[in-house]
Design a protein that fits this description.
The complex is a heterodimer of chains A (220) and B (638). Chain A is of the alpha/beta class and 220 residues long. Chain A is 36% helix and 16% strand. Chain A has one domain: Nucleotidyltransferase, domain 5, CATH 3.30.420.10. In chain A, 34% of the residues are buried. Chain B is α+β, with helices and mostly antiparallel strands. Chain B folds into four domains: 4-160, Sandwich (Jelly Rolls), CATH 2.60.120.10; 173-288, CBS-domain; 293-355; 491-638. In chain B, strands 1, 2, 3, 4, 5 and 6 form a six-stranded antiparallel beta sheet that branches. In chain B, strands 7-13-12-11 form a four-stranded mixed beta sheet. The longest helix of chain B has 26 residues, at 330-355. Classes of the chains: A alpha/beta (220), B alpha+beta (638). Strand 3 of chain A pairs antiparallel with strand 1 (35-39) of chain B.
Chain lengths: 220, 638
């Protein structure tokens, strides 16, 4: 439990964010707002690497809503030249960039109490939590879904473990803008819709089925 | 702020009309407000008669079939693939969906808000024109189909407001004149006279139970058959044919032709057990439509001489042209054109019999062969026909044969005058080889089947698709039975027929290029008949023969029957039906454009969309040829 004193010291946006979780949330897949997200980072080290950009797009009632999407680039103090070839984000590019704190504030406003979806969620969430920690804020409160784990719920896929590229092939999703945060978020959103659709066909799918039962065994 | 996803959607949409004529900012606004949706194969985007969504749709990946329900059957009207838009008309016209949209493969759709589009229409004249043209011709992408000239022609047609398309809902008379079943005929007639109408409906609890028309009064009352004091139920036609409000003119025409009726009742839910809200009479349609098929058929039946028939056949060509321009489903068109062709042939035979000195000495049957026999003949092609007559004793054989040859000669001459040219290969009933007695035909088929030379197989492919146009059904049934007996006793015949069906390879070559003719007058042209249409026709014939199914002479109905017989191959056969319809329409278009049989297509004159559409038809051809290859073990015979 956080003390009243600590809570009072949180910035306004975080208080607003926290309030949203006190509202009653929908318990059906159709009425839930899912925010599918992806982060591009300087590397895989939660402590030392930094978020370069966040892309996110929302799904309501099986529709990906392009108007409700989010794309932001972060200013970098530390810069690792070796990952530039993967994500293509230069230290001083033409893109408008925000400070980590401003970017996170915008992101928190955007996601609200939505259910967060990502491919290998654990990593993205940990990166965001690490950034929040630097801002002296607690961790994200949102429920999360990992499309990698959701995929395993499909018949005959129990022991499969695939990266996004392989699943794109399997689900026939064009790999446009791969390795940009927004592009990957959009690809993951399509993947999410297709897996949900297949799951619905295989069984009577309930909202609660989407969330993993056991601990946080992600990629990490 | 950067918006990678919207940019990607922008890049896609800008390639397709009407988005290609939008200003950059306009299109970007659309792209950044798109909703992306995924739909699994066989799921519906929307269903006929549903209230319209707030969005219309653009196909990003996959394919969406547009279906129209009629007589409990879902008729595929169109297939939308990459870049096609659908579901827009009801949004703009504030109407229910007239068709159902179902994914024929898994699809990703972009849903575009109609509100944004409405804003744009206010300011962008080109978009407005595109949309008006789309509605009036009901084709998805008019830009892709023809020149701008045609497009503007369409707009004029639409804005003049006097034009009428078959897909439009038919206007019916509301507040129909009715009476109760307790009324007498005299009372009913009085009401009809007072209201100056030609028909009256008999209702019970507001539901229509019968109809009396002028014709009933003429044939049943004026002749003294029934007394005018009897109840209306004594002469009413019952039950009546009922339809929903949304019936289109094309559907109404077919329903009238099919049921040989002149009035359709419109009820609330389309069944006889619901409230009557209107009547649609043939007259209503005639007023709206000059070239009316049922009217043409009536004229045919009344024709006293060949020149009248010739005139009607020319009218039919106009009708066909109109139908094709309006993109009426090809199955509707071929049904109507076949009916008319058949009626003309029957009339030509009746006129010829009148000219003969005496009545036919024995029963006979006039057979249409080839594409006419399959009821797939749309353009004016050659006549292919044959005649079968009842067996007679040897001494009577020669005079009998002479009689029918003379009759056939008269009929073929008339057909030639009407516009069906003589068959260059002389495959006509006036040829002594094809004017035979029943046992001669049986022997002929038996010989072809048991010594299947290349010529014999060729003959089989023509003669197997016969359709009785006039005369005795029993004779023809006996002929069919004997063909199946012969095939059953000599099964390898089907393998020969299979080899013949594969003589034209799938029309796509290496690097997915079209295979064109190498030499001759049609060098570098694509032979759509023998390379695309015939492989499907041949395959359907072979498979239906192998199942011993009779009375299925039409390629589409053959495939439909095959789906019932081999449910496991449903997808393949359905795709064959789709391809066949598209190819038939393509060929008819070509023929009308170049005023010939439409057989050879000049690929250079096709645009990208047409080429893609055509190519899309070839996959099922390759697939069905593969199936024949395996089933008849044809690799070994080649």
């Amino acid at each position: 439990m956080i003390s009243w004193f600590t809570y009072n010291n949180y910035p306004f946006f975080w208080k607003q964010y926290s309030k949203k979780f006190k509202q009653k949330q929908p318990k059906s897949i159709e009425n839930t707002r899912f925010v599918v997200l992806d982060t591009e980072t300087t590397g895989l080290d939660i402590i030392n690497d930094r978020i370069l950009s966040i892309g996110a797009i929302c799904i309501v009632n099986n529709n990906i809503d392009v108007a409700d999407s989010f794309e932001i680039y972060l200013k970098q103090a530390a810069f690792k030249a070796e990952t530039v070839e993967i994500h293509g984000i230069l230290k001083e590019g033409k893109l408008t960039k925000l400070s980590e704190a401003d970017a996170l504030e915008n992101f928190i406003d955007f996601i609200g109490n939505a259910v967060l979806v990502a491919h290998h969620t654990a990593f993205d969430i940990e990166m965001i939590n690490a950034a929040l920690k630097r801002m002296e804020l607690p961790k994200l409160k949102n429920k999360t879904i990992d499309t990698g784990i959701l995929y395993k719920k499909l018949e005959g896929k129990k022991d499969s473990h695939f990266n996004l590229d392989v699943l794109c092939e399997e689900f026939n999703i064009p790999k446009h803008d791969r390795h940009t945060a927004a592009g990957d978020a959009f690809i993951t959103a399509l993947l999410f819709l297709k897996i949900i659709s297949k799951l619905k066909k295989e069984r009577n799918l309930h909202y609660s089925d989407l969330f993993r039962v056991t601990g946080k065994e992600g990629l990490l | 702020m950067k918006n990678t996803i919207a940019e990607r959607i922008y890049d896609f949409l800008k390639n397709f009309p009407p988005f290609d004529v939008l200003e950059k900012e306009q299109l970007f606004k659309i792209a950044s407000n798109v909703k992306v949706t995924y739909i699994e194969k066989d799921n519906f985007v929307f269903k006929q008669e549903e209230n319209p969504h707030e969005y219309f749709y653009v196909v990003k990946d996959g394919a969406i079939g547009l279906y129209r329900g009629m007589d409990n059957e879902q008729i595929l009207v169109d297939i939308c693939d990459e870049g096609d838009i659908f579901g827009l008309r009801p949004l703009i016209q504030n109407d229910l969906y007239l068709m159902s949209a179902k994914a024929t493969e898994e699809s990703v759709l972009y849903a575009v808000s109609v509100e944004i589009l409405k804003e744009i229409i206010q300011t962008n004249e080109k978009v407005k024109k595109f949309l008006i043209a789309s509605f009036s011709s009901n084709i998805k992408t008019p830009y892709a189909k023809g020149t701008n000239g045609q497009l503007f022609a369409n707009i004029e047609m639409h804005t003049s407001n006097t034009s009428f398309t078959e897909i439009q809902s038919a206007e019916f008379s509301k507040n129909p004149v009715t009476t109760l079943k307790t009324s007498t005929i005299k009372e009913a007639a009085q009401i009809m006279s007072d209201k100056r109408v030609g028909s009256i409906l008999i209702v019970e609890n507001k539901n229509p139970i019968g109809i009396i028309t002028d014709k009933d009064l003429r044939s049943k009352i004026a002749t003294g058959l029934v007394s005018i004091d009897e109840s209306v139920t004594a002469i009413m036609s019952s039950p009546v044919k009922t339809f929903k409000q949304k019936i289109t003119v094309a559907e109404a025409q077919i329903a009238m032709i099919k049921n040989k009726i002149t009035h359709l009742c419109i009820t609330k839910d389309g069944t006889t057990h619901s409230e009557l809200i209107g009547v649609l009479s043939e007259h209503d349609i005639v007023i709206l439509h000059g070239n009316n098929p049922s009217l043409l058929i009536k004229k045919i039946n009344r024709a006293k001489e060949v020149t009248a028939l010739k005139y009607i056949r020319e009218k039919t060509s106009n009708l066909l042209l109109g139908y094709i321009e309006q993109n009426i489903p090809i199955t509707f068109i071929s049904q109507i054109i076949s009916e008319i062709n058949e009626a003309i042939t029957i009339k030509a035979i009746e006129l010829s019999i009148e000219e003969m000195d005496k009545e036919p000495p024995v029963k006979f049957g006039w057979l249409a062969l080839g594409s006419q026999g399959r009821k797939e003949q749309l353009l004016m092609t050659d006549q292919d026909n044959a005649l079968v007559f009842e067996d007679v004793s040897p001494d009577k054989y020669m005079p009998t044969k002479q009689y029918f040859l003379q009759l056939a000669k008269k009929v073929t001459e008339k057909l030639n005058v009407i516009g069906f040219e003589y068959c260059p290969a002389n495959m006509m009933a006036s040829n002594p080889n094809w004017c035979l007695s029943l046992s001669e035909w049986k022997n002929q088929f038996d010989t072809w089947i048991k010594s299947p030379t290349e010529d014999a197989i060729m003959m089989c492919t023509i003669f197997f698709d016969y359709d009785l146009v006039f005369g005795d059904k029993k004779l023809v049934n006996a002929m069919s039975d004997s063909i199946y007996d012969s095939i059953n006793s000599f099964e390898i015949f089907l393998n020969f027929l299979g080899r013949n069906a594969l003589r034209n390879p799938p029309p796509i070559g290496f690097f997915r290029q079209f295979l064109v003719e190498d030499d001759g007058a049609h060098k570098d042209q694509f032979d759509i008949k023998s390379r695309a249409i015939m492989p499907l026709v041949d395959a359907a014939r072979l498979l239906i023969l192998s199942h011993n199914v009779k009375d299925k002479n039409n390629t589409i109905s053959r495939f439909k029957k095959l789906i019932k017989l081999e449910p496991k191959n449903e997808d393949l056969y359905l795709s064959c039906i789709d391809s066949f319809k598209i190819l038939l329409q393509f060929r008819t278009n070509q023929g009308l454009k170049s005023n010939d049989t439409g057989r050879y297509v000049d690929l250079n004159n096709l645009n990208k969309f047409e080429k893609l559409k055509l190519k899309g038809c070839f996959k099922p051809i390759a697939a069905i040829q593969e199936l024949l290859n395996i089933r008849y073990n044809l690799a070994q015979m080649m």
